[in-house]
Amino acid sequence: MPADTVHLSPSNTATAGRGMSRAASAFLLFAFFWIVAAAAFSGFAGKWGLRDGDPRFGVAAMLENAAHKPFVYRQLVPDLARRLDAVASERLKERVAKRFRPDEVFAKSQPGDTPGERFRYAIVYYLSFLSLLGSLFVLRRILLHFNVSPLAAILAPTAFALSFPYLQTVGGYFYDTVELLFASLAFLLALRGRLLVLAALVLVATLNKETFFFVLPALYPLLRQRFTRRMAWCAVGLLVALAGLMNVALKFAYLDAVGGALEFHLMTNIEAYFSGNPYFRVETTYGLVGPSRAFVGTLVLLGIVLWRAWPLAPRLVRRHLAICAIVNLPLFLAFCATGELRNLSTTFTGLVLLVAFLIDREASLRTGLRAPAPEAQASPALKETRQA
Fold first, then answer.
1. How far does Cα 194 stand from its chain's mean position?
2. Residue 1 DSSP SS3
3. What pLDDT digit, counting tens, does each position of 81-115 carry?
4. Angstrom distance (rounded) from CA 221 to CA 225
5. What is the chain's Cα-based Rg?
6. pLDDT tens readout for residues 232-249
7. Could you tell me which of 110, 109, 120 has the C-alpha nearest to residue 64?
């Protein structure tokens, strides 16, 4: 036998096999989530682009710091794009401009004419996509924390991601997916009691969208699982204060920008919701005519999920969603355009949890219905009949 022959013991072989199996499973999961995120993001890009050409909130205006309030405050991704543009070589910009051509696919995309403009557009475009992709993994991790089945932990984020362009009704923006990633990360960090990392996240997330501090009160039930009542409230107060300070800094930085810090829609919304007009509107999503605004079918769908999944949710999740509703719904009514469902964003992580609980419940019911009944013990008379 050759001296350099390697003999693998059964334990080493099994360990290597498990390692390869985990790596293969991770790759398959990544590939699946990539396809899901790509499909969902293409639904957004085809529907809204990056709001190209709009002087109030279009991507070009955001990159030039010329957007109107409050949109100009949302500078995290545009600032990263400007910084990367400043250090990137001209050769890299030319290669990106040559290969990155969303305008050949989506009619609303206007990435610009120069390599620098197309490079900055590509940075915003891909950071938004990667945020959606990352949020799928974070949401899966949250679901596994609540002992959701591995299949439901994949299907629930998938269902939500594919429905996200429908929630981006009336409007949709590149920072929506980044907001989703930060909100789900904040939920996960609060579950784990990682206060320092959470504080750092709050500062960055507020730079993406100045209203992020409305996400923070609903983290209290999660923090309460790790800390005393007093410490949990103090942590929430500190996080809100940090987000508020960042918000004030943003307001001062763009004090001279055109527009107002808030848009007040209360009376318009009250009139619209009582008139019934938002419940039967349609718009094009994924290239097909579908629901728009507070469409009645969308509300029925959300109502069924809430009705059937609420009893299945742990008290922790129910308290989280209750605080989200108390904070978000008045703001939604007062400051958001009629039926702009993407602005219910504080509830999205909890909604994914409810969907996962419902999937597991339905799967267990179906499995129970398909399970074969135990064979009944035959009576003596029946045995005699069979023998005859």
1. 20
2. coil
3. 999 999 999 999 999 999 999 999 999 999 999 99
4. 7
5. 25
6. 999 999 999 999 999 999
7. 120
